[in-house]
Fold each of these.
Amino acid sequence: MTEPITDHGMRGPAGREAIAPPVAERRPRRGALALPASIVVSFLAASGAPTPLYATYAGRWHFSPITTTVVFGVYAMAVLLALLVLGRLSDHVGRRPVLLAALAVQTVATVVLATAGGVGALLAGRLLQGISTGGALGALGAAMLDVHPRRGAITNAATPGMGTGAGVLLSGLLVQYAPAPTHLVYLVLIGTFVLQGVGVVLMPETVTRRPGGRAALVPELAVPPGLRGPVLAAAPILFAVWALAGFYGSLGPALARQLSGSTSVVVGGLGFFLLAVVGSLATVALDRTPPRTVMLFGITMLAVASTGILIAVELSSTAGFFAGTFVAGIGFGAGFQGGIRTVVPLAAPHERAGVLSVLYVICYCGMGVPSVAAGVLVVHGGGLIGTARDYALFILALAATALAGLLSTSRSYRK
């Protein structure tokens, strides 16, 4: 019989009711979540930092919107590859070795981006960024859960939006108002990574090394049998909200500038920043609401936001676009948080990195594939406005699919 999911996201009597946590999880130190959370923020900030720069790069190197979305998609695909190959590694070799390696690669990637002289270097930097981020996400999320399962689950859901929003805003402000616009933001990030590396060297390990590290490198989307139901319930909404994030990351800046008639990179990045920050605030605000309720709320907000953006695009309304973005942020935060909380608190300590990696694979598929397709449509289809309209309709369809999937899985649990 399939194990039921209660409104608190815990397993029914058939599940594993108690699993001895690591020592660090039983007696969490004050601030123990801060370091892994800060690394998630800085890695996602690094991923968002190039967004306001795409217009600058395009003007300097004369590339089309397809190139912009390919650069965006290369990052997402690299994250996917790294999640598949490296996602479970920290469950075997420990969190610290994986995080140190990821910080080293992320630093190299940022140096490549800071010194980029063309599209090839930009693609190489984004590829390295994606490998580093994908290799680290499972370990970082698991490290937070090792310290405190409930707070760790909320922090897992809140920090990606915080990081992405911070990266887009910081980069936009530096590009607009500071010297060396294509270098300074990367230098700030490099300094941050070095400090975090020192912190990882000093942090205690939260899991015991286990054999099988080499076998863990074989690409696999493995979900423990007891978690398959929760993952099926969460997958459609996770895909949908990250497809929305992909829209704002790839086409959002150009759309905001076209609707507003502004050439400011700050205005271009404002939509992505608003989506990410509102999403993070929604994640925290809904932390004690039952996860299924949160997912239903997120789906509703996603549908409302997509409708609002459709209307704003038809009316060429800048205010309508940002109002829709605000609602979209609520939907993003609620959908992502509800999906994470439905699954990750149920994972045993030695399953956490692998389970989180599966969830992030779903998220980055949602973000990467539609955004690359949208870039092709901008050039060979209906242009920016037409593609934005089609993408909003696509998000509406995803929201309907997510609702049907959630209701279907809920009925199966009650049988």
Note: Confidence is low (pLDDT under 50) at residues 1-27.
Amino acid sequence: MHLLDVRQARVLHLAAAVGTGCLLTLMLLLNSELARHGGALFASWTAHGTGALVAIALLLLLATRSGAPGQSFRYSAAPAPWWAYLGGMTGAVNVMLSSTAVNIGLALTGTQAVALSTQMLFSLAADRWGLLGLPRQRLAWRDLWPVLLIVTGSAIIIFAGRDP
């Protein structure tokens, strides 16, 4: 691959990550508004129901352009492990918990700060112990410092950024 192509790919990947972060924050805001009006379970059902409809529509659209349905989306012929199918369950619980947290005092920024901190801590643990099929990684101080800074920043947002 040409050096310019590699740089363009990195920019594209970074842009995709930034877009994902923006979409996750927007999703939390929208889901918390649904939860405020109809409850956390209603917000979760609505989010996952509309998400399923959009996924089906995209699958049908892409399948008509690339041949047989699903063929262009396969990466491996091996079946996924049973626990890989639990993502929908964790997503449903995540929508209920996060949309409730936004509405009971943490607000959007505090909820995102706690979520980021715990995601980083869980990621370190998953890497260290090879959870859910990940290769085990030996952690160094350079892996811990960014997480410490994120957790500290999150604590400042939550505890110092609000009036009692």
Note: Residues 3-73+91-160 form one domain.
Amino acid sequence: MAGVMRPACTALLVALALAALAGSRAQRTTTYAPDVTDDVGGWRRGRATFFGGEERFLANFPDRGPPPEYGFGNIRYGSCGYYEQNGRQDVTYGNQVYPRNAMAALANNDPDYPGSCGRCYEIRCRSLPVIANGTTPYRLSGTYQLAAVAPNAADEHGRYYPGNPLYGQDAQLTRCWNATDGGEDSIIVHITDMCPCVQYEDTEHPSRVTGVNTPCCGDVYHFDLSYWAFERLAHPLYGIMMVDFRPLDCATHEPLTYLPGFVNQTLYGDRVESGWSFEPYRQHYSSFWSPWSGVDGHNATCQATGPDGGLTLACRECDRDGYRPFAQAGSHGALEFWTAPTPDMPQGIPALTVTLGNKGARQYCSSFNTSAIAPVNRRGNYFKFSLPLAAFQCPSGYGLERLDQVTFASNARGNVSYCLSMIALVANPADGSSLER
């Protein structure tokens, strides 16, 4: 636009609201009616805020927090671990695995939050009055209003704030960009992070609450988009907008069933697949994907660790009804994977320990060492293993329906470098068992 319309007050709900929720938290049993009757492909109504952003824009709000984030958070360290985790390098926008304008966090109060890492959603902005919880209008009073602080702040495309026609009513109507403004009808985002209702100091001290993300606690479906994704749909000075959304297949963009949310039985294909987080630990280097380095020319994830390092792939909260990927593979199913040493290591089977478990409860099953079992296949320098799920001895009360993670840990005495390819939970193993050879 050529100029700036009368400034109006908006709010950014991404920030921590250090206040009581006053009963606004919703249980995951809340129903979200689709706008169409077909559960596959139906658009649903929700809401979105943003986090992160260009420092040039964020610096307009110095009272929110110190630079360079100014209290808006950042997108670089998402809870799904979707970035190249090289212990010798800082995490930058350049080593994110997905474009920064296609990244989002999902509220952990959303009904399809379980297994949401890596899932894709199509989102479109709606020029509607913003609602808080239920059908209650979102009120501007008592909120931090970006447009009131910096009404002339342009976005990254030089566009100015279009104004809020409901400002005089203490409400907000977000005006979506249209084609004339360079806007997009819809965008597709990857879930790379979570928007927690309640934030804790750390996982070791879950009772130490450090803040509350109010918009992620309500009964309205909520996304926290990256700043760059948000501005594709509306001006960031709005801070919050109503949206329509639907889950999509990340590869084909075909619409998917809403509930339960899609979780891939393949944990790692050409990348970490939908439903699974990427959690290397005590690594010297870890690649999210190494192009064409896997079996049969697929991508691989390659790790360089010491004797106490490894990689966990976890499906968060997937022990809930409707998810349970290990139980879907069944009692006759298996965990299958291919592994190979990196070219700089001695050739042969990498010395790995494979363990299943429940991430949230910190319960772990028995493990198997690749050095003590037999591969069921070999292609080039890659060895395939097939481990029957029933062979893992798990703690009482933690059968297949409670499992949600796989860990590959080094059992070498020194440093080890290896690659993993085509990791999957299969119902009908084709090559037999690594325990029967």
Note: Confidence is low (pLDDT under 50) at residues 1-37.
Amino acid sequence: MDIRFGISESAREIDIEAEDSVTQEEIEKMVSEAIASDQKVLWLSDRKGRRVGIPVGRISYVEIGPNKTERRVGFALP
């Protein structure tokens, strides 16, 4: 699962490739709970075991979708 965070006052996005076992609903719940609470940093792990801290107060948007490897671009035959 590919998760992309837009951070206010930053030109870069934060991309995380999460484990396939994580669902979109779980990600939505974690982000919503972090925003609703006084939590300053949302810590997530990617599929390589890397931990990434997201500044909760500066999250401007979140995109949740399939892994980049699953997307197909071009005119490939099935």
Note: Helices lie at 24-36.
